[in-house]
Amino acid sequence: MQTRFEKGLQQLQSIDGEAGDKVISALEDIAPDLGRLIVEFAFGDIYTRGELSLQERELITLSSLLTTGGCEAQLAVHINAALNVGVSKEKIVECFMQCIPYTGFHKVLNAVFAAKRIFGERVVES
Description:
The protein has 126 residues and is mainly α.
């Protein structure tokens, strides 16, 4: 039987790949418990639940981060994650467009520009 950490780390790596590892590594020297909690709770407990697909989970995460605002770094990680689990660029942008009436143009513009940067980086990587 896997521990919560092992289960979460496996899920994080399958969704985020290197980007997830980088986030956890960046926390090791300042807040290692925060990294552990992200792995265990968010990815070990929440992301492994069966009711939603990984694509649905990432779209919900994107809309939540956009709505919160000021989360462009986390948006970038989850835009990559959404692409990694098969969400199309068009669907990501449409997810952001859906948020306009509820959060305003300013937050949607921030998310769209974050997506534009990520989409461009991924084309270069290909």
